[in-house]
Q: What sequence folds into this?
């Protein structure tokens, strides 16, 4: 379980989030001088730039990435060699360290095979759990990583909802953001465009 979660997170989730952050940063710089109204509780408040608004999303997502990256090494501590309850009874001496070293090398080789021309966002180094009793009895690191994912999902949902609201229209919505059309709209609503902000 820990292996697959670590690899999917390091090889797919983090690069995808970094790509989104880079796209938002690009748009942040592009629209830094475009002024719009800032709102508090949906009420007009003070002027701000679109770039400033986008910088908030960038910061929130970067914090989410940093949180995931700080938690990911804890997922790489494995309960291997603890046998049934953590005592290591009937396990060869050094088995846990050799297996973790082999898994680290295998993961590195697999990454280089799958993603030939890219550098990993974070290196996966698997190690034997310091306390195998705790590692077998509880999954605290996974729970904490789940919390990081929950925070990330909340940030992405907020970004998506804000983009949907700010691009609502075209005739009666806010229409502050004009997003590229992803596909044609409805035959009964000719001005409707289906956009996909993310």
A:
């Amino acid at each position: 379980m820990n292996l697959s979660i670590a690899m999917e997170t390091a090889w797919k989730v983090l690069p995808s989030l970094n790509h989104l952050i880079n796209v938002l940063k690009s748009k942040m710089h592009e629209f830094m001088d475009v002024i719009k109204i800032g709102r508090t509780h949906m009420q007009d408040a003070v002027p701000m730039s679109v770039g400033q608004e986008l910088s908030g999303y960038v910061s929130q997502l970067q914090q989410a990435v940093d949180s995931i990256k700080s938690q990911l090494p804890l997922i790489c501590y494995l309960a291997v060699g603890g046998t049934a309850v953590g005592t290591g009874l009937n396990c060869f001496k050094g088995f846990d360290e050799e297996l973790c070293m082999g898994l680290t090398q295998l993961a590195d080789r697999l990454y280089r095979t799958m993603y030939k021309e890219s550098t990993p966002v974070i290196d996966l180094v698997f190690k034997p759990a310091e306390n195998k009793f705790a590692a077998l009895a509880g999954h605290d690191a996974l729970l904490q990583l789940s919390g990081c994912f929950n925070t990330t999902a909340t940030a992405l949902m907020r970004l998506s909802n804000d983009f949907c609201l700010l691009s609502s229209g075209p005739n009666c919505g806010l229409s502050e953001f004009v997003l590229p059309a992803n596909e044609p709209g409805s035959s009964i609503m000719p001005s409707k465009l289906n956009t996909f902000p993310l």
The chain has two domains: 2-160, 167-198. Helices lie at 2-30, 50-75, 95-114, 132-137, 140-166. The longest strand covers residues 43-49.
